Amino acid sequence: MKNNKCGLYQVIDKEGNPTAVVVFNDFFAHGFPHLVRIRDTECPNTQKTTETETETDKEKIKPEQKKKPSVTSYIAAEASLFTQGPVSLPVFEERKQACMSCPERMEKPEKDEIGFCKACGCGERKRAGLSVKLHMPNATCPLNKWQPEKGEGIGQLKRIGGIVDQIKGVSENVKNEIKQSKIDKVFEYTKKLFKK
């Protein structure tokens, strides 16, 4: 990695509203116009746990805004998996235990063996399943039950199906999002027609 500096970034949605706070590597952050740097922080791959937000940061972001998913936070979480590899098995198990006992967990064994988080707002997409999300170093719990952690290296992707399976999963998710976006646009257009 060319740059080991990280920052605490505010994620801004397309309407200009703050949605989440993520720890992101400065080298990758410059490619995302919807990330606004708040302050320096240590990278998850250089410490066991990341810093928590300061009181000033908490004032900037309301709790209900943290629950909104965004494309940028999704990309940051996916990118961390490809740049750092999955979190260690003990970290995965700690995250899993926190989610399994959480009332916000939605069981859907036919779609994901662990289930889905109702609090994060990601829905029931395949890559939003907790059995996938819990492996992502930069993923965070919207209820602050677990934070970003370091990955064990991209060589460990084989443990969760390998890099090819991960790329296929991301590609399928992006394709489905584009398809859903087109369906949503048609639905909105149809609604407008019937209002006239």
Describe this structure in words.
With 196 residues, this protein is an alpha+beta fold. Helices cover 40% and strands 16% of the residues. The chain has one domain. It has helices at residues 26-29, 55-60, 63-66, 71-84, 89-100, 130-133, 162-195, and strands at 6-12, 18-25, 35-41, 105-108, 112-117. The strands form two sheets. A three-stranded antiparallel β-sheet has the order 2-1-3. A two-stranded antiparallel ribbon has the order 4-5. The protein is globular, with a radius of gyration of 17 Å. It starts with 5 loop residues before the first strand and ends with a helix.
Lay out the secondary structure:
Layout: E1 6-12, E2 18-25, H1 26-29, E3 35-41, H2 55-60, H3 63-66, H4 71-84, H5 89-100, E4 105-108, E5 112-117, H6 130-133, H7 162-195
Antiparallel strand pairs: 1-2, 1-3, 4-5
Uncertain segments are 46-68
How much helix is in the residues?
25-40%
Strand content: 15-25%
Biggest β-sheet: strands ordered side by side in the sheet: 2-1-3
- How many distinct beta strands? 5
Instruction: Kindly report the average pLDDT value.
Output: 75
**Shape field:** globular
Summed up, the domain count is 1
Structural class: alpha+beta
Roughly how many Å apart are the termini? 55 Å
In N-to-C order, the SSE pattern is: EEHEHHHHEEHH
Helix tally equals 7
Largest sheet: 3 strands, antiparallel
